[in-house]
Specification:
- The chain has helices spanning about 1-20, 30-50, 50-55, 60-65, 70-85, 90-109; strands at about 25-30, 85-90.
- The longest helix is centred in the first third of the chain and has 18 residues, at about 1-20.
- The protein contains six helices and two strands, in the order H-E-H-H-H-H-E-H.
- It has a two-stranded antiparallel sheet.
- The two termini are about 20 Å apart.
- By secondary structure, it is mainly α.
- The chain has one domain (about 1-109).
- About 20% of the residues are buried.
C-alpha cells in the first residue's frame, strides 16, 4: 500500500516535471523517460540529502520562517539536472521558480 502511494507520487511528479517546462522558462525535459528518471532521482535526493541540508541550515531556515526550504529544493533540482541526462535547468532562478511551482502543485493535490 505504501509502495503504491510512492509510485503514484513519483508518476505524478514525472508528469509535472514533463508539463512545467512548457509554462516556466529555463527548464527543459527531453521526454517522459527523462522526467520519470528525474522524479526518481529527486525522490532519492529528498530522502538522502535533504534531511542533512535541513539540519545544516536550520538557523537560516528558522530565521526565514521556512522559506529557505525553497532554496534547498532549488539546489536539489540543480543537482538532479547534473545527474539526469535530458533534464536541464538554466540557473538558480529557474530552479527556484520550478521548485516553488512544483511544491505548490503537490501541496494542492
Amino acid at each position: 500500500m505504501k509502495g503504491e502511494r510512492l509510485m503514484i507520487r513519483v508518476l505524478w511528479n514525472a508528469l509535472l516535471i514533463l508539463a512545467l517546462p512548457y509554462i516556466l522558462p529555463g527548464v527543459a525535459v527531453s521526454g517522459f523517460l527523462a522526467a520519470f528518471i528525474t522524479a526518481v532521482v529527486l525522490a532519492v535526493l529528498n530522502v538522502l540529502v535533504k534531511p542533512v541540508l535541513i539540519v545544516l541550515t536550520l538557523p537560516v531556515t528558522v530565521l526565514s520562517l521556512g522559506l529557505f526550504l525553497f532554496v534547498i529544493n532549488a539546489l536539489l533540482l540543480m543537482l538532479a539536472s547534473v545527474i539526469v541526462p535530458g533534464f536541464y535547468v538554466s540557473g538558480f532562478g529557474a530552479a527556484l521558480l520550478f521548485s516553488f511551482v512544483l511544491s505548490l502543485v503537490n501541496a494542492i493535490i
